[in-house]
Amino acid sequence: xxxxxxxxxxxxxxxxxxxxxxxxxxxxxxxxxxxxxxxxxxxxxxxxxxxxxxxxxxxxxxxxxxxxxxxxxxxxxxxxxxxxxxxxxxxxxxxxxxxxxxxxxxxxxxxxxxxxxxxxxxxxxxxxxxxxxxxxxxxxxxxxxxxxxxxxxxxxxxxxxxxxxxxxxxxxxxxxxxxxxxxxxxxxxxxxxxxxxxxxxxxxxxxxxxxxxxxxxxxxxxxxxxxxxxxxxxxxxxxxxxxxxxxxxxxxxxxxxxxxxxxxxxxxxxxxxxxxxxxxxxxxxxxxxxxxxxxxxxxxxxxxxxxxxxxxxxxxxxxxxxxxxxxxxxxxxxxxxxxxxxxxxxxxxxxxxxxxxxxxxxxxxxxxxxxxxxxxxxxxxxxxxxxxxxxxxxxxxxxxxxxxxxxxxxxxxxxxxxxxxxxxxxxxxxxxxxxxxxxxxxxxxxxxxxxxxxxxxxxxxxxxxxxxxxxxxxxxxxxx
Amino acid sequence: xxxxxxxxxxxxxxxxxxxxxxxxxxxxxxxxxxxxxxxxxxxxxxxxxxxxxxxxxxxxxxxxxxxxxxxxxxxxxxxxxxxxxxxxxxxxxxxxxxxxxxxxxxxxxxxxxxxxxxxxxxxxxxxxxxxxxxxxxxxxxxxxxxxxxxxxxxxxxxxxxxxxxxxxxxxxxxxxxxxxxxxxxxxxxxxxxxxxxxxxxxxxxxxxxxxxxxxxxxxxxxxxxxxxxxxxxxxxxxxxxxxxxxxxxxxxxxxxxxxxxxxxxxxxxxxxxxxxxxxxxxxxxxxxxxxxxxxxxxxxxxxxxxxxxxxxxxxxxxxxxxxxxxxxxxxxxxxxxxxxxxxxxxxxxxxxxxxxxxxxxxxxxxxxxxxxxxxxxxxxxxxxxxxxxxxxxxxxxxxxxxx
Amino acid sequence: xxxxxxxxxxxxxxxxxxxxxxxxxxxxxxxxxxxxxxxxxxxxxxxxxxxxxxxxxxxxxxxxxxxxxxxxxxxxxxxxxxxxxxxxxxxxxxxxxxxxxxxxxxxxxxxxxxxxxxxxxxxxxxxxxxxxxxxxxxxxxxxxxxxxxxxxxxxxxxxxxxxxxxxxxxxxxxxxxxxxxxxxxxxxxxxxxxxxxxxxxxxxxxxxxxxxxxxxxxxxxxxxxxxxxxxxxxxxxxxxxxxxxxxxxxxxxxxxxxxxxxxxxxxxxxxxxxxxxxxxxxxxxxxxxxxxxxxxxxxxxxxxxxxxxxxxxxxxxxxxxxxxxxxxxxxxxxxxxxxxxxxxxxxxxxxxxxxxxxxxxxxxxx
Lengths: 480, 403, 366
What we know:
The structure holds three protein chains of three kinds. Chain A has helices spanning 7-13, 46-58, 66-71, 84-92, 139-149, 181-192, 202-209, 226-234, 262-266, 269-298, 306-315, 323-343, 346-366, 372-385, 392-409, 411-427, and strands spanning 23-30, 33-40, 78-81, 96-100, 106-109, 155-162, 168-175, 221-223, 238-242, 248-251, 429-430, 433-434.
């Protein structure tokens, strides 16, 4: 509905805001005209409101017309609003709006003031060397963190709103001369299609951006660190920042991303390569070790060296559970401990770790309920899982799945399960980019930053797996 | 189909879970499995096969895990059925995949041993990489013999067989596959170590595992006992330096320690082994072989087969029974001429003796007939029946000192 | 139109999947007939396949149509469907024997204590799942599997090296008759060149694509030839008894005695690639059935192909020796015709202009 010159009519149009106590309708006299200032009192900066809105307004004399009203304010974030729906949205977003009798628009002032957390290092991606800043829940702060790192006019933020009730501010971020326009179009299309009550976190949007086919693997990357985000958009990805979430989304997502740690880029390529291979080896160990051990114990004793087999036979003497049960329950206990230690307050969590890890484990072994090899394998596999924390959830699920398969059908079942996983992964795509690139399909140039981390000079082009423009990213003559 | 998908997934999950949690498809509990480390086969009086299986039984003490042995026996008209019967009588499932030693009783060698070994060659249940040996007397006695070398006698025998290549080279170990390959080759010849139990000279007490048991040794008397042996003092050692020769599966002769060493020299390398050269000007020497460059060449003409054996050894004196100044050893003292000559003559004699045994027994353990077939195929048919008679030996031995 | 595959993927496809099924039972089948000339058998089969591959490559270079489009332009829609149906049956037959030997391997070698067919059945679940996937999945799997194939193969070859008597292949050519006979009997295992027929028009031809593809096939052949030589050199007179060749080779090294059967790592790598290799005939059978019967649902053809395969696997379980005999003796001619003779005619087909309908093997694009 249009704002009219009649203030009373406008006030009636905005009556639905009057139900809430935190919305203030302040009647004013500006010169000889009556006016109405509307704002949500808990999310505006009252000092700024006084200084930038009320003081100049009350200083006006005589009859106020359109031009005097507009010109008297020096607030840099002022804008004209002509629709009453827009007025409501702006008020609820922390703007102050001034309506004046005889003027057919409202003046909106950017005087928002939200409570926000200080910038800190995100707990999920700590580094020994490198930047320690992490995103916070405030979108403007997050935008500022990115802009500070890329002072280029090619860096573009496009704002949008998602959520029928939450009207959450969402910002799409990309480098204009690098990003694939088709990809950008696709992202915008998918965001437009979001029809949900509230977007409380970026993960809500991640589900919409995925292809909706059920998969345990995510199709949208995420990060809590501005330096990682900048490096990703520099490769041609599109980032999505959501107000109220410290986690930014990036698309397209490659499985390989989770094996790359930010510290790899700040350390020597040699140590980065070793670290990446260790991560890969750990993931394989975490996934397959319990399963292979159980299947070897049940079906394929020939896989175990004789001396180790004798140790196993000795250690399982008197254990009441079969090898598969034993592994399954130890796995279950580990997951319970894991779940409890995450949920519990920090000081109790420590106690749980000690009681669970040391006391329970030691006692269970001494009591002859579980055998030491089983405990060791589950512990090792659990630790290995956390070398790639981003993949912890799917890997944890797969670990259980493989264990059940191996305990039921043995090693051939395990091979079939791994093969099926491989088929699933190679066919999965994120925004038309294969999840398993640059290995399947093989993209030779991108292998320089895969498990092998090449020197900076070797990585002179942007990843070919992503359909980016402007392939070259640095001069070949860079010296390490 | 999209409706069926989750239902199908649920059904598969349910089915797999049942399999997982029931384990009810004939699985054998690992604890009920007898891990057989060696199989000894003898001929029973009634002509059946008597099989004694040695089982490794791990036992833990607070400090170490040491392995004890137990023997289970079975009888059957075939080797396979005899092994199977060990499970029926003992209640343990015989897990033969870890069996690395097969011992044939001495009395089996009078018949074709391949009737016994064929089972191991064909079945997937036993690895045909298992070592095969011939017992001097009863095969079961070898397994029940106690030794200070290891709590499990079969492990002690394997140590002698498998560690030997890098050391003395006076044992000619052979696995089931190699024996069968020889048997089924054109030569129909094979060999295997013949192992006998010798009393330990040291009369050592206590076992190597630190158990220090004090009960009396069974000394080969409990060959068919079931259950775990009592801890016994090790009193026996094993000698595998004699090599039994087989033609068409039957034992036709033996090679003594020296000839076994010579056989190893001609079929492979003897680097690291040693020769004792005694009584050279009243001195005794021990020569270590640093490098062995022995070659066999077969040259065939219309009327004879010439076998050229060139032995080239680089040796050094490791020990001698006269006192020498330290500096002599440091300077890699060259071999005295007499020592060199005596060693060369000794090797030459051994090679000639080896070929005498070969001609006598007609056991072609150097597979000359195979070489004739492979490299002189055109003349093979004319020589295949009398090649050993037509064989002219040309032996050239050079023993060098390391410079 | 964006092509589903790249030339590189075709090359890796042949390296990853072509040699793998020939490393299990085939060496002993060949050894029983050709003895020390078993490797010549492999050379004959390889040469035969290379000729076919060359011709198909020429056909690929001549036009950019898929095999089905080519058949339609030459024989019309009905004619094309009849030929495709015959090829679907051929793929069903081609996949059958390697499946049976794999089943036997799994049963007898992996599950020594508990030999039952139950453990092999999950293969059909994988095969079914793969059959639902588009052609690009095969290319991407090839991109990964060649590493497993080569790693497993090289590990086993390395471990078995010390036990090989290379002189055993002498004298060369004395069993040439046996080699030719063995070559005929092993046609079931060879003939992988026929897959290129179904990649026609579906891959982006790069520079010197034909040379690259032929070289990759040669490499896959060399892998088999070397395996044959190693196999005969290890077992010589008892080679015909060794049912599962490649997995038996490496256990004689002394390292195995010390640290246990770590050669199983190589065997499992090979087995991993082999599962896909075994599913390939069923995969192509499904694609052809989709076309022949214009199937709309992607589920029907995998159910038919895998169901039939599963049925015959269970039904002929007790008659495996007879089935093997029949396949080697009588069906070899069928394999020769479909793998090596019929593809030769593709080069003579004059293609009419064909409207681009995309990948007509996909059920939703039929």
